[in-house]
Amino acid sequence: MSVRCGIGSASAHRNRKADPLTTQSYHRASHSVSLLHLHLVFVTKYRRRIFTRGMLTFCEHTLRMVCTGLDVELVEFNVEADHVHLLVAYPPTVAISTPVQRLKGRAA
Length: 108
Prior knowledge:
Elements: H1 10-15, H2 20-23, E1 27-28, E2 33-34, E3 36-43, H3 53-70, E4 73-79, E5 83-90, H4 97-107
Antiparallel strand pairs: 1-2, 3-5, 4-5
Helix pairs in contact: 3-4
């Protein structure tokens, strides 16, 4: 299955990074197939630009450790000066609130 945006030229599509949602393999169990993702955005208070390179490296390492402990996968980690984007894949056996609570708690 291919997902394409109707805006832009064909060269823009070739230069774009592969979409993690379409290249990700499905989670397969004995009676179910799933592909569940969370997109979380953590924003600083008043959108202040406070993140440094060292802080972001530490933050990514910490969040990856939390994901490993929860049996979820941190698919993408993207950072701007005032906010952090996370794309997390999780199995259907994990409640959606659990990774959100743990990741938000550790990121604070």
